[in-house]
Design brief:
226 residues, Spore Coat Polysaccharide Biosynthesis Protein SpsA, Chain A, 34% helix, globular
Length: 226
């Protein structure tokens, strides 16, 4: 079974004073949509939200209000994403087999994408949803282009990123021992040799980062209803 960690301790610094986790998207807060995405997946067992202390009570109340029965509580958010996830790891069930780490600000991840990532993680030991980049990417140094990577080999990383529990704990222990801090869980797993599978995803699995992303998310939901 799968234990889900939702990372929701960010400061929303690019949201113009709005806490994006509680931003309304077509009548439902962002963090609730993220929890409900996993509530509806048969393979998931529990959902632990890593968040700032002042948000714990509100998140628990929202989970109860919206019927998130797999909500298992909140963990203390850390100074970095990695620390927030490590804090949440201390709360997962001992007999879980896979650990899923998801951005609380990705409220539109489809159920079928989650299930495919779970399937691939069970086979390869690690998997993440991803989509090919659409634009040409330039590598820049001091304002000047230094390289143009082959777009055919570039993917946009998304979440949930899912790993075999033993391999993920090995990666976490490695990072702590060597005082390393990663912003991406796949990068963390790669550091101990895990070959991460890229599961085909959808471009609508967006991350809420700036205020215009809320408008985009609403448009996506309304488009799906048509």
């Amino acid at each position: 079974m799968v234990s889900v960690i939702i990372a929701a301790a960010g400061r929303s610094s690019r949201m113009g004073g709005i806490n994006k986790q509680f931003a309304d998207i077509c009548g439902i807060p962002v963090i609730v949509r993220s929890m409900l995405a996993f509530e509806n997946v048969p393979e998931t067992r529990e959902i632990i939200v890593s968040a700032r202390t002042e948000d714990h009570e509100r998140i628990a109340a929202l989970a109860a209000e919206y019927g998130v029965t797999k909500f298992a509580g909140c963990a203390e958010g850390g100074d970095t994403r990695q620390q927030s996830v490590i804090n949440a790891l201390r709360h997962i069930s001992r007999d879980t087999s896979l650990v899923a780490v998801h951005d609380g600000a990705r409220p539109l991840v489809p159920t079928d994408v989650i299930r495919r990532v779970i399937r691939d993680a069970g086979v390869f030991g690690g998997a993440m949803p991803g989509v090919p980049v659409k634009d040409t990417i330039k590598q820049v140094d001091d304002g000047l282009v230094t390289d143009t990577p082959d777009r055919r080999r570039l993917y946009i990383t998304q979440t949930p990123q899912i790993f075999d529990k033993k391999k993920y704990f090995e990666a976490v222990n490695f990072a702590v021992e060597h005082e390393l801090d990663f912003t991406d869980d796949c990068q963390l797993a790669e550091a101990v040799g895990v070959k991460v599978c890229v599961t085909p995803s959808v471009y609508t699995n967006i991350k809420i980062t700036t205020p215009e992303d809320i408008a985009i998310a609403k448009a996506i939901i309304l488009m799906d209803k048509d």
